[in-house]
Design brief:
5-stranded parallel sheet; two-stranded antiparallel ribbon; 9 helices; alpha/beta; 7 strands
């Protein structure tokens, strides 16, 4: 596990999961939101996003969370040796986004791109979340396309996320290789996923 793509809709806990994985595995952490957004939630120029994104995925060690433009998703999954799909129910995603915004309003300041504040997001995120939700069949098909060459973890519930992180932490603590032991973390499948060579 050296190139981990964590993907899914907003408010699913991707960033928290990604930061923990990055810390456990001593990998650089990157958020697609940091690459896409400038201060005040203004989109950065597409050229700047693509330059930064392509530079990161060309490296051999990273954890990247987020979605972004579709071609960037495809390129990221193509390079990933591990794909973690956070696929909670849409109501759960909306609930967690609302909680994140409420926390930001109370001054707790969840991590956000430089110069951005989740307290300012409001309902503008709803159409984005709906678009990501509607694109889920396309995303699942793209993930399936990489199943033969990357490990895939399909996390459908908060308990799945917690169990996945606890298992990863245990393996790291025990000095075991996540490369061999994290394969097959898809409760819908009985056969382990094959690692990318």
């Amino acid at each position: 596990m050296k190139r981990i793509a964590v993907i899914g809709n907003a408010g699913g806990g991707k960033s928290t999961l990604s930061r923990r994985l990055a810390a456990m595995l001593d990998l650089p952490y990157h958020a697609v939101d940091d690459l896409m957004w400038g201060p005040g939630w203004k989109l950065r120029p597409d050229r700047a996003f693509r330059r930064d994104h392509d530079t990161i995925i060309a490296d051999d060690r990273w954890v990247i969370d987020g979605v972004g433009p579709w071609d960037s998703v495809a390129a990221r999954l193509e390079r990933a040796d591990t794909i973690v799909h956070v696929d909670l129910s849409l109501p759960r995603h909306f609930l967690w986004v609302a909680k994140r915004r409420r926390a930001a309003k109370k001054g707790l300041r969840p991590p956000a791109p430089d110069g951005c504040d989740y307290a300012d997001v409001g309902f503008a995120i709803v159409p984005v979340m709906w678009r990501v939700h509607k694109a889920k069949p396309k995303l699942k098909a793209e993930i399936e396309r990489h199943r033969a060459t990357a490990r895939v973890a399909h996390l459908r519930t908060p308990a799945d996320i917690s169990d996945f992180l606890n298992a990863a932490e245990f393996l790291v603590t025990e000095g075991q290789s996540l490369i061999t032991n994290a394969a097959g973390w898809d409760r819908a499948r009985s056969t382990p996923d094959r690692p990318r060579t």
